[in-house]
Amino acid sequence: MPTTARAFAAFAPTEPLGPHRISRRDPGPRDVAIDIDYCGICHSDIHFLRGDWGPIPYPAVAGHEIIGRVTAVGDEVTRHSVGDTVGVGCMVDSCRTCPSCRESLENYCTGGGSVGTYMGVDRHTGGPTYGGYSSAIVVDEDFVLRIPGHLDPAGAAPLLCAGITTFSPLRHWEVGEGSTVGVVGLGGLGHMGVKLAAAMGAEVVVFTTSPHKVEDARDLGAHDVVISTDEEAMVAQARRFDFILDTVAAPHTLDPYVRSLRRDGTLCLLGAPAEPHPSPAVMPLIAGRRSVAGSLIGGIAETQEMLDFCGRHGITSQVETISMNGINEAHERMLRSDVKYRFVIEMQERERAPAGTVALG
Ligand code: NAP
Ligand code: ZN
Ligand code: ZN
Asked: Pick from 133, 137, 138: which is nearest to 7 by CA?
């Protein structure tokens, strides 16, 4: 018998989210059942729930920065045990056989695409997948991550998306000692990009539209901060960077960032706005053999590598914890760039609630 989990769902693109009940499949032989303790709020949740990336079926439950405790495992599960603190990120399954999956790059699965923690079709039930704005989830063990024990679990939740999404391109473009890296946008992804690039030994510069974030940027590890609305300051960045991560969730002109790259530098787009950015000018690309690239989260093996890296360096996200009831306000604040630097939903209310009540409402 499938179990029922409490959740917070969107029922229409523009209406506030509200309490809902969803069904979770019974754990199969390779499944791990998890009680969710924390779930980070990613800007992708907002894009998805509002239909920015195309129409979706409602009710819809977002959330893909999940930390919880294992409550049951299937007979064939070997990597996780009841009681473990574990994580689930943006994917819960993939084809396992395509060239990308065979290279542990399930995020780029070409055998039908990886199954999103939300926005996917459950390979077991054929129904829609529901994310971590909920009290419990059931996931194939291959897509369940080990969390280094000493990391604060609320602060570790955003590593499952914001962490891996910035770690993967930093590694792919070989950022390290001697690199100069720009991070555009100081939100959930951006602040993780700063922490990770600094821990890898790079010189890190933040580009922000929010002057009130300058001090925080330095505290997070940035060596310099540029207010991106200051045209003169932007011109002064010409040819400074080996690599720039652009995390902005809205369309904007890329040209000032392309011009800020050295010869052979790369501007890597992570933000996925509803409308595309205006096309970058051609001449600055040609003139410096510069690249504009993109990157999508990271594979499962690399996600574990990132979590272990964060464990070694004591890196977690700077979070503001909220209850389920605070989620609509959190979404509104993120749309105003008013986030320091990740909202994380705390699910603990269910422990305090008398049996039979809907604690998340
Ligand atoms: P977030 O926490 O809301 O941060 C976005 C930041 O971008 C803001 O804090 C703000 O920083 C800056 N910004 C500037 N102008 C903005 C505007 N008009 N609207 C919104 N933000 C603006 O978002 P996030 O969770 O980091 O996600 C950022 C983007 O990455 C989203 O589009 C999300 O869907 C995408 N994403 C992509 C991947 C991937 O795999 N590629 C994974 C996760 C998320 P300042 O105040 O410093 O200017
Ligand atoms: Zn995300
Ligand atoms: Zn595949």
From this structure: 133
**pLDDT tens for each residue of 172-216:** 999 999 999 999 999 999 999 999 999 999 999 999 999 999 999
Same domain, 127 and 266: no
Decide whether any atom of ligand 1 lies within 6 Å of the 185 Cβ: yes
**What does the block give as tokens for 129?**
């997948």
Would 303 be classed as within a structural domain? no
Query: Is 187 touching ligand 1 by the criterion CB < 6 Å?
Result: yes
Q: Is 323 exposed, middle or buried (0-12, 13-18, 19+ CB in 10 A)?
A: middle
10 and 135 share a domain?
yes
**Range with the lowest mean pLDDT among 242-246, 261-265, 352-356?**
352-356
Q: What is the pTM of this model?
A: 0.96
Q: How many Å lie between the centroid of ligand 3 and the Cα of residue 170?
A: 23
Domain span at residue 227?
Answer: 162-294
Compute the distance from residue 314 Cα to the ligand 2 centre, in Å.
21
Å from CA of 64 to ligand 3 middle: 20
Number of domains observed in the structure of the chain: 2
Kindly state whether residue 299 falls inside one of the protein's structural domains: no
Ligand with minimal distance to 208 CA: 1
